[in-house]
Amino acid sequence: MAPDSGGKVLSREEVDRALARLGAEHEAIETSLLALQDHAGRRLLEGAELSGITRERWVRAERTVSLLWAYFDTCTEALTTARELRAKRRSPTRDDLVQLSALLDGENLVIAGGAVTGERLAERVGWPALVERMNAGYAEVLDVVAAADAVWSALPARIDLLAAELHRLSELAHSVGVRPGAHPSGDQLRRVTDELAALREEVIADPLAFWLPAGGSSAPGGGRPDTTRYDRAARALDDIRREVDAVIGVRKDAEERLVRLRDLLSRADRTLAEARTARGEVLAKIAASEVPAVNGPATALHEQLATAADYRRRAQWHRLSPLLESLEQRAEEELERARASLSAVTAPLAVRAELRGRLDAYKAKAARLGKAEEPLMVERYDAARRLLWTAPCDLRAAEYAVLRYQEAAAEILTEPARPRDQDQAQAQAQAQAEVRDRINRGEWGKP
Predict the structure, then answer these.
(1) Which of these, 51, 42, 103, lies nearest to 74 by C-alpha position?
(2) Are 173 and 189 in contact (CB under 8 A)?
(3) d(Cα 352, Cα 358) in Å, to the nearest integer?
(4) 301-309 — which CB contacts under 8 Å span 24+ positions?
(5) Quick check: 75 and 82 in contact, CB under 8 A?
(6) Among 222, 225, 219, which Cα is nearest to 207's?
(7) Does the pLDDT of residue 291 top 90, yes or no?
(8) CA Rg, the chain, in Å?
(9) Which three-class secondary structure state does DSSP give residue 287?
(10) Angle subtended at Cα 111 by Cα 109 and Cα 114, rounded to the nearest 5 degrees
(11) How far apart are CA 433 and CA 416, in angstroms?
């Protein structure tokens, strides 16, 4: 059957323009196919032992590459035939133009795809359809090749650098006792080491499993490598490095920190001893007052301090590091507890001292105004003084007596004042009101 040009016969000028255009397309296709043939990613894929999604896509890509070259051979043959036919005569005959039109503008390019696709043994297509098919196949193959090359260019080198850093850190960690089974960071080191080794094997065998394609209609190879697992391993390595640095820091200043801990615990013990002594004094001098008990020294902390010193002697820095941090916090808390205990047991003495000072202060005020010798004032002062200077002192009764003296003073001192004494009179009236208000609220018996 003669070639069919679709009923259209091209003129000589149209034939020449078509030959020029198709020649340029043919040259561009050849350049692209040769570049694909020489692509570093393609050479790596051909020589690699692939698995997973990369293996599946590369098998399809290899079939597509074979088809592309077959399509290109068809184009080459048709273009060569057309050029030879056009070169016979300067002015082609109508029969020549009919044949050229069929080659250049009709659907007469025969491609044999049955051996690969399992479809028809042969098929006739035109130049535009065949070029479009070649462009689609080329983009599909290039997407696989470029993605695999991008992953192989990015991840293995970074994994190797991280593995080298991990090896150096492991040696340093082992030197200070951070080893698997002996320290949590040692176990983490082993896990990160295993993870990096497995990650590298997976990246080499299945690079496309670590490729995140760009969304939308991006160009072939659009996307980026997926570094999630690598980044997670890098962060874990940073955490381990900080822990190892902390252990090394402990090795440098362990003795100083141990001395400071001994001092803290010693001060806490002395404070507790002072609190126990003060408690005995309070119980002897103060009556009708609840005095809290005082705990003994922190025996457990002293034992742990001895354990820390033993770790230092044996250079077990990985054990010493967390123990010192815990001891430092608990020793500070123990000292604060001892101080609070001392304050609590001596509170009744402080209350008694405050009552004594208040009583004398009001007496001094009364004396300045010539009212201290008033019978009521003398009576209530003597009553309060007897309670405050008698052991054991009844704080509730003594405070009530002081408040009664304050009340009497407030009443006496609120007599009409001279103009120059107006400010003092106002202060005295306020004090009287405060005393009465406190008595009404029932606070007179509270230390």
Answers:
(1) 103
(2) yes
(3) 10
(4) 301/265, 301/327, 301/330, 301/331, 301/334, 302/265, 305/258, 305/261, 305/262, 305/265, 308/258, 308/261, 309/258
(5) no
(6) 225
(7) no
(8) 50
(9) strand
(10) 155
(11) 17
Beta strands of 309-436 (E only): which ranges? 393-394
Long-range contacts of 90-94 (CB under 8 A, 24+ apart): 91/12, 92/12, 92/15, 94/9
C-alpha to C-alpha distance for 346 and 186, rounded to whole angstroms: 51
118: confidence class by pLDDT, cuts 50, 70, 90? very low
Single-letter residue type at 412: I
How many degrees, rounded to 5, is the angle at CA 101 between CA 100 and CA 105? Answer: 125
pLDDT, tens digit, for every residue of 67-107?
A: 888 888 888 888 887 887 777 877 777 776 777 777 777 67
DSSP 370-401: T-TTSHHHHHHHHHHHHHHTSSSEEHHHHHHH
CA dihedral sign, ordered 181, 186, 191, 195: negative
CB 65 within 8 A of CB 51: no
CA-to-CA distance for 218 and 201, rounded, in angstroms? 29
CA-closest candidate to residue 410, choices 394, 397, 429, 424: 429
Instruction: Give CA angle at 185 (179, 190), nearest 5°.
Output: 65
Best CA proximity match to 402, nearest among 352, 347, 348, 366: 352
Indicate yes or no: pTM above 0.85: no
